[in-house]
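Input.
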Amino acid sequence: MIPVLTAVLSRTTRKKHNEFEQEALPHMDVLYNFALRTTGNEDDARDLLQETYLKAYRFWEKYEKGTNIRAWLFRIMKNSYINRYRKETKEPDKVDYDEIENFYNSIRAESTDPNDLQQKLFGNLLGDEVAKALESLPEDFRTVVILSDIEGLTYEEIAEFVECPIGTVRSRLHRGRKLLQVTLYEYAKSQGMIKND
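Output.
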């Protein structure tokens, strides 16, 4: 009796694993990029991504086949991030983050390889001014702008992720872009993207 149960369990587990691998894993890069922009830290982004995929795998039977898998994964990530943030704000401070970040940045700057091809190609993809302007947006606008303009999600996927109507997504995207335009106007002029008046 036990060998039969083991064979059935193995088939069920293999099926779950294969389905998960085929449907969920192709979205890993998009989720990582969003996690990185949300956390601002590669290690935290990887942790958040791992936590998201562990929860998704654990609750795979709750996913309705044929629905938007990417939005489902984003919702898990968003909830995990919120839960983590709430937990961290309740814990007492353990280290001075600014001190550690300054130390890390100075070490990283000293150890950067000037011949690193990846750094040359992608290092300044979003200039400092653009990244700062994006970070300065209110969270609701920033999330929608990142998901639409950087990650290329559809309005429907964004609406499902932020749990609001498509009209609200469009409104937030329009307002977020306008805020970015105002914030980056002088920078664009200095870069020659806009002719001086």
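Residues 1-94 form a domain with the Rna Polymerase Sigma Factor; Chain: A fold (CATH 1.10.1740.10).
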